[in-house]
């Protein structure tokens, strides 16, 4: 033996479990979307708080379903706490249609409130 081989440490080959190998291959094969972002826990908790407040304020017990989408025609400040303030061109989800001239809507920030139908433009 030469001097180089004398001090060289032999490392044993580690065997990989077959299941782990297959799992690793499948993960590597999946195309990753770098532009897809997950909502942070703060945003989720904020949305949950808004939904809880909505259910308490409007006594809404059913499943929240979007009936239609609408765009605000003009900016309107809220006069009551239950009203949703609007900005011109804002996209809203209509959650519940009441029998009067108002509907319950949700904006992009997750806030809920009453909006008069005359301020909305349905597509």
TrEMBL record:
A GO BP entry: integrin-mediated signaling pathway
Coiled-coil region: none
UniProt domain Helically-extended SH3: residue ranges: 54-120
Keyword Iron: no
Name of the protein described by the UniProt record: FYB2 protein
Domain of life (superkingdom): Eukaryota
Keyword Transport: no
Pfam family, one: hSH3
UniProt keyword terms in alphabetical order: Phosphoprotein
Cellular component GO terms held in the UniProt record: plasma membrane
């Amino acid at each position: 033996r030469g001097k180089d081989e004398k001090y060289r440490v032999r490392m044993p080959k580690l065997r990989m479990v077959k299941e782990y190998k297959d799992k690793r291959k499948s993960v590597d094969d999946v195309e990753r979307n770098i532009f897809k972002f997950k909502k942070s826990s703060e945003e989720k908790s904020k949305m949950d708080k808004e939904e809880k407040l909505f259910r308490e304020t409007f006594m809404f017990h059913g499943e929240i379903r979007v009936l239609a989408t609408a765009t605000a025609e003009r900016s309107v400040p809220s006069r009551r706490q239950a009203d949703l303030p609007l900005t011109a061109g804002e996209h809203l989800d209509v959650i519940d249609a009441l029998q009067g001239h108002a509907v319950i809507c949700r904006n992009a920030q997750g806030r809920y409130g009453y909006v008069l139908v005359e301020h909305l433009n349905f597509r």
